[in-house]
Design goal:
alpha/beta, 7 strands, 9 helices, Rossmann fold, single chain, EC 2.1.1.-
């Protein structure tokens, strides 16, 4: 591991009041190397430069602590919907080992990458599952089974809520990672969130360390069970978002 990597990661995580042990820093470095290695033959991320990966993938993923301050001490069951290359789920697992994480993605080759990462980093209490949110959101093994559902997937909030709210248990939360300016999107999604059994509790907006990249974490409380009507069949949530 390079000194520059360790110094940069520790410095940025210090701004989130997160301290890591040496073995956790090593796991992040191994993850970074694996990402760059696999990205040469499959499209995992457009971001591969070390400092950018640290800020825009690792630190961004761990910024969840701004919305869930107690996350360091809990063994929450979390599902990461549309995880892609493992963000935010794998960074959360490395930094907060007690969490029980399910990584979900619809592309099998990404699941292969995630399983390789889990194995190489020696992570436990974490699994990668292949499937679409519209299908797994109806599966009793996953429907309303999670304390937290998180997602960095790119979709409007109405669509993303229909994909994700069914996974959160009553009393749990759905927390999407969104870009900074979300007032309009949030306004358009409020009724959809209500239909799905939720309500917006708070929005944390901030800049990623050392950048002008604005981020918003929307904390959506799951107040009631989601109607059996949702999620609708594959394709509909994105073609015809709930209004």
């Amino acid at each position: 591991m390079t000194e520059a990597f360790e110094e940069s990661l520790r410095k940025e995580l210090n701004l989130l009041s997160i301290e890591l042990k040496e073995n956790q820093i090593n796991q992040f470095y191994d993850y970074f190397q694996l990402l760059v290695e696999w990205n040469k033959f499959m499209n995992l991320t457009a971001i591969t430069e070390m400092d950018e990966v640290i800020t825009k993938h690792f630190v961004d993923s761990l910024s969840l602590i701004k919305a869930v301050e107690e996350i360091e001490t809990k063994d929450y069951r979390i599902i990461d919907v549309g995880t892609g290359a493992g963000f935010p789920g794998i960074p959360l697992k490395i930094a907060f080992p007690e969490l029980r994480i399910t990584l979900m993605d619809s592309l099998n080759k990404r699941i292969n990458f995630l399983n390789e990462g889990i194995s190489r980093l020696g992570l436990e209490k974490i699994e990668a599952i292949h499937g679409r949110a519209e299908d797994l959101g109806r599966d009793p093994l996953h429907r309303e089974q999670y304390d937290l559902c998180v997602s960095r997937a790119v979709a409007n909030l109405s669509t993303l809520s229909e994909y994700c709210m069914p996974f959160a248990k009553v009393g749990g939360y759905f927390i999407p990672y969104k870009s900074g300016k979300i007032e309009e999107e949030l306004g358009a999604a409020k009724h959809a969130i209500f239909l799905l059994g939720g309500s917006v509790k708070e929005v944390n907006t901030f800049l990623l360390p050392g950048t002008d990249v604005e981020r918003s974490l929307v904390k959506i409380a799951k107040n009631n069970g989601t109607s059996k009507k949702y999620p609708r069949k594959a394709g509909l949530p994105s073609k015809e978002p709930l209004k």
